[in-house]
Amino acid sequence: MSSRIIPTLRYQDAASATEWLCKAFGFERHLVVTDDDGQVEHAQLTLNGDMIMLGPVRDGPFDELQKTPGAVGGVGTQSPYIVVDDVDAHYRRAVDAGAEVMMEPEDQGYGGRLYSCRDPEGHLWNFGSYDPWQP
């Protein structure tokens, strides 16, 4: 099964973001499109069969609709929640890569375990073991 809802993010440095997201969170490159100078124009990254897409900040019509956290005072209006098997191991990997932890791993009242962190450009990410698709 493939994901049908795919979060999209913008980064000032899409190449560095691609590298960091793979190192810190375990994403794998599905498709990375670069320009003639080697700059990332579009990236599709996967994790456990799900996907995110990212690209650089540009000066175009879409960029008036979506901003980076840094462009709006360091806060976001949405954040991905990604199901992982081992929250604590994932947390350690992210911390080792320099993620800014916003919420330490903690068991949740509704089930599962969760932590939240920011990537180097300030996007908020949530990783947990609670899978809302499971009964």
Largest sheet: 4 strands, mixed
Strand order of the largest sheet: 1-4-3-2
Shape: globular
Structural class: alpha/beta
H-E order:
EHEEEEHEEE
* Extended strand count: 8
| Strand content bin | 35-45%
Please tally the helical runs, counting DSSP H or I stretches of 4 or more residues: 2
Distance between the termini: 18 Å
Helix content: 10-25%
Mean pLDDT: 94
Radius of gyration: 15 Å
Low-confidence parts:
none
Write a structural description.
The chain is α/β, with parallel strands linked by helices and 135 residues long. It has two helices and eight strands, in the order βαββββαβββ. The strands form two sheets. The chain has a four-stranded mixed sheet, covered by helices on one side. It is globular and about 45 Å long. The mean pLDDT is 94.
Question: What's the structural blueprint in terms of helices and strands?
Answer:
Layout: E1 8-11, H1 14-25, E2 28-34, E3 40-47, E4 50-56, E5 81-83, H2 87-96, E6 100-107, E7 113-118, E8 124-128
Parallel strand pairs: 1-4, 5-8
Antiparallel strand pairs: 2-3, 3-4, 6-7, 7-8
What's the short version?
The chain contains two helices and eight strands.
Q: Top keywords for this entry?
A:
alpha/beta; 8 strands; 4-stranded mixed β-sheet; 135 residues; 16% helix; 36% strand
